[in-house]
């Protein structure tokens, strides 16, 4: 074997080794990138699933719920495209199919909030805010079209305002129970204004009617209380005037 042949074989061997190393490194980089992408998608699935579980029907429309289930289904498909043997994504996808077939009854127009303290309400608001942020993030990534992002983020914002109304209703009821009628009336009035502002699709008519009646009842109580207080005030004024006259007379007698 000539020296030239030996050199050629060495060069070819080096090229093959470098090529193999490059291919192996490229495959490893692709595997890591795929694993990272699956991790990101899994985290998104976890968050959306948690929101669906935590947000009560009082703050969920059938349309918004269906949209969230569709998001979950889409994310499962993305994982299966990256890893067809991903068992948990496949199982979740089948479960979502079952959930989408189930009838969903919203409780938006219920009169009783699903929480009894402001802290719990604030926790629900945080979940809604997380949902809106997720929708906005997906729109910026290009995985969700702008029209859908605007539609469902607006629904999320409406739910955020609805929870704020229910938190304020706790203060109204507390004031009413403590016989602070005027304070309660102010709280109920503010809640009514907020509800009317977000009631663009007549979703809260029952709530609005209830608050309207409640406010009317409190105003009547306030008027009756003020009317009952007026005669007493008038008698007190007359008595004070009489006392002043008596004092003036005494002073005059003393002076004389």
Polypeptide structure, described:
This protein is an all-alpha fold. It has two domains: about 25-105; about 110-235, no CATH class. It is about 85% helix and about 0% strand. It contains seven helices and no strands. The protein has helices at about 5-55, 60-80, 85-100, 120-140, 145-175, 180-200, 205-255. The longest helix has about 50 residues, at about 5-55. It is rod-shaped. The N and C termini lie far apart (about 150 Å).
Summarize the structure.
By secondary structure, this protein is mainly alpha-helical. Helices cover 83% and strands 0% of the residues.
Attribute tags:
2 domains, mainly alpha, 256 residues, 83% helix, 7 helices
Number of strands: 0
Shape: rod-shaped
Tally of individual domains:
2
What is the residue-mean pLDDT, rounded to a whole number?
A: 82
C-alpha Rg, in Å?
A: 35 Å
| Beta-strand proportion | under 5%
The major sheet is characterized as:
none
Give helix and strand order, one letter per element, not per position: HHHHHHH
Distance between the termini: 152 Å
Structural class: mainly alpha
Number of helices: 7
List the helices and strands and how they pair.
Layout: H1 3-54, H2 62-82, H3 87-101, H4 118-141, H5 146-177, H6 181-198, H7 205-255
